[in-house]
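Re: [ENG-882] Designed sequences occasionally contain unexpected residues at chain ends

Forwarding the minimal case from QA. Structure tokens:
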């Protein structure tokens, strides 16, 4: 029995059998096969959705295939429920893999299994072949030996790592290997690199262009002592067998690229095209840094649901980060699906996109402004069910009133209201319609008091108030009051001659706005009066006598 049989005593498929089973894909010209390959660590970073979106768009806009592979060879980092979180997050954002796992975690596709822990035999079959070909070897180095190696390298100023003359078990005689195996000494399998650090190689990256690297000479671990492969090795086998044509991934993997390319070559496989993308960053004072899981709530995909951004707003925002020309495209193609936008890998920012809430909010406001009343009502209702029991109770007992509130400046409005960026903004936009939640702060009262003749103005309006006035008729009444109480009809008139007026029309309207809503900024006041109804508005107007 050879030492290789001692390492793999159980029958394994042969490399030929595996290649026959996982056929090369038959795809139209130019079709790209991409994948996302997250590790199930229990956290879905918004950057993961960003990368997945790019991969999915690149594949589908080329009539190719997009698949999801779960990279769970690091069992220590695995968290229960994490795979389900990955599957449901992708589905929530309409990033639907053709193969891998569906929204509920069911496996789909003919290159299964798509979870690395279930592919142990496949990796072992290739590792066995590498041992037979002399491209890998068992390494029995103990932790102490590795520590000593590290120490010796430090003292002698050598580059750290397991390579060349430092690779003690690289050329062990077979008898020695068998002895150790027979004694049950734990081992890993290492790749036998033929590279030299002094050789410079050039690799083409899809975004960063040609990059110079020293050739890899590290004998990296390809199989751990638990029999599972390392990521480096597993992804080579998987991307080969699954027919990946384009690997698009975070640039934290860029430094591993020479190794990955070398592994593909050593296996006799054609390497896919690699594109390394910079992570999403944010400004922290004057400097940029990565969006961090620990410091930034917006790094977690769940955050967007919790505060109530429509998911399509998040996706459109991400597309805007992917390609900055998305914004122009959207302006010129208002009714098209974002899926019609051609994502271009070479228009990505090589230094990383900057996360910006103002932009996200603007995109989201635009999307929410286009919803019909029924659409926004049901989206807010679904959000409240999970996130805001007070709002839910209010909606349950006042559904028609709240629909009327949400319809203000919505359907058919010339300038649709754009004050709601996320569903958690809604309570502040509807609460003042309810007497029990309405109040005028001292600051707002002072604002009213600072306007000349405020009491007379309101008392003059009360007899002419009609809650059914159209916007124009209502505004006509405001103009009448303005001329009566010496307010300019518009800002221009006021600015030309400020001393001769008590203010301009917007100052005059502000008295009414604060009295009726408690705020200085609201949607159209005539519509608000109409929705609130006569009694409620009159009682609020009459309150002017108590200010
Ligand atoms: N499992 C790796 C990760 O979690 C995937 C890297 C790749 O896409 O090749 O980042």
């Amino acid at each position: 029995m050879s030492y290789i049989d001692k390492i793999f005593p159980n029958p394994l498929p042969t490399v030929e059998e595996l290649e026959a089973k996982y056929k090369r894909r038959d795809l139209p010209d130019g079709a790209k096969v991409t994948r996302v390959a997250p590790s199930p660590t229990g956290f879905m970073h918004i950057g993961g959705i960003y990368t997945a979106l790019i991969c999915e768009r690149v594949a589908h806009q080329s009539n190719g295939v997009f698949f999801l592979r779960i990279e769970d060879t690091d069992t220590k980092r695995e968290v229960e429920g994490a795979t389900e979180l990955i599957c449901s997050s992708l589905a929530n954002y309409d990033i639907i893999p053709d193969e891998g796992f569906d929204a509920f975690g069911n496996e789909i596709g003919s290159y299964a299994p798509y979870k690395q822990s279930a592919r142990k035999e496949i990796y072992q079959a290739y590792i066995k072949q590498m041992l037979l070909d002399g491209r890998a070897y068992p390494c029995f180095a103990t932790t102490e030996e590795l520590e000593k190696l590290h120490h010796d390298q430090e003292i002698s100023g050598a580059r750290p790592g397991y390579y060349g003359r430092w690779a003690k078990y690289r050329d062990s005689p077979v008898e020695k290997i068998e002895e150790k195996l027979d004694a049950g000494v734990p081992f890993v399998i290492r790749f036998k690199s033929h590279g030299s650090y002094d050789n410079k190689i050039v690799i083409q990256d899809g975004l960063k262009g040609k990059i110079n690297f020293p050739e890899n000479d590290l004998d990296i671990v390809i199989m751990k002592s638990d029999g599972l492969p390392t990521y480096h090795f597993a992804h080579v086998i998987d991307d080969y067998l699954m027919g990946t044509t384009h690997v698009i991934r975070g640039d934290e993997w860029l430094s591993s690229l020479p190794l990955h390319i070398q592994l593909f070559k050593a296996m006799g496989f054609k390497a896919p095209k690699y594109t390394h993308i910079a992570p999403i960053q944010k400004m922290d004072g004057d400097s940029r840094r990565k969006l961090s899981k620990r410091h930034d709530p917006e790094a977690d995909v769940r955050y967007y649901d919790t505060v109530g951004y429509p998911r399509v707003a998040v996706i459109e925002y991400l597309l805007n980060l992917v390609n900055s020309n998305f914004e122009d495209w959207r302006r010129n193609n208002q009714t098209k699906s974002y899926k019609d936008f051609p994502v271009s890998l070479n228009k990505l920012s090589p230094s990383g996109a900057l996360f910006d809430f103002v932009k996200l909010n603007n995109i989201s406001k635009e999307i929410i402004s286009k919803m019909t009343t029924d659409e926004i009502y049901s989206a807010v209702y679904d959000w409240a069910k999970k996130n805001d029991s007070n709002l839910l109770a209010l909606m349950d007992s006042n559904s028609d009133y709240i629909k009327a509130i949400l319809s203000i400046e919505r359907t058919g409005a010339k300038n649709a209201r754009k004050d709601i960026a996320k569903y958690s903004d809604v309570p502040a936009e509807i609460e003042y319609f309810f007497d029990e939640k309405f109040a005028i702060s001292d600051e707002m009262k002072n604002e009213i008091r600072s306007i000349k003749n405020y009491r007379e103005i309101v008392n003059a309006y009360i007899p002419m108030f009609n809650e059914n006035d159209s916007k124009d008729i209502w505004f006509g009444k405001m103009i009448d009051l303005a001329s009566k109480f010496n307010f300019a009809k518009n800002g221009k008139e006021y600015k030309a001659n400020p001393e001769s007026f008590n203010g301009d029309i917007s100052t005059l309207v502000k008295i009414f706005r604060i009295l009726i809503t408690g705020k200085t900024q609201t949607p159209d006041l005539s519509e608000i009066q109409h929705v609130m109804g006569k009694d409620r508005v009159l009682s609020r107007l009459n309150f002017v006598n108590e200010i």
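QA comment: On inspection the terminal residues look reasonable. The pocket of glutamic acid is lined by residues 37-39, 71, 231, 235, 247, 249, 253 (CB under 6 Å). Proposing we downgrade this to a documentation issue.
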